[in-house]
Fold this sequence. Notes:
The protein has helices at residues 17-29, 48-55, 71-75, 110-131, and strands spanning 6-11, 34-39, 79-83, 96-99. The chain is α/β, with parallel strands linked by helices.
Amino acid sequence: MSNKPTVLFVCVHNAGRSQMAAGYLQALSGGDIDVLSAGSAPKDQINPVAIEAMAEEGIDIAGNTPKVLTVDAVKESDVVITMGCGDVCPIFPGKRYEDWELDDPAGQGIDAVRPIRDEIRARIEDLLAELLPARGGA
Length: 138
């Protein structure tokens, strides 16, 4: 039995980008990847426009809540993807880190959030192809 890879998405508020990325990875991996998300300064709730943008894709992230980034979450992850949190993310040797430069959807309308969502989906599909090459893509 192989261990599933764990991917952690981190942004400052854990209310938009990281939640959308986590929603996509959970949906598209079909449970073959453990998905975590967190923020260095999490908001009280997920950005409602991010929830709406994902609902258009048939993915419900409304039940999630922003979580604070912990050292343990980083330690148990194989891949750590940061989105504009930079220096606040703890670095551990042997982890794979990626920084995705994405616009922050906070305070944006749905028309501005859709292209961010679509870019996240494209990056998630690339990540899935790397992490689960045997599946032959999504």
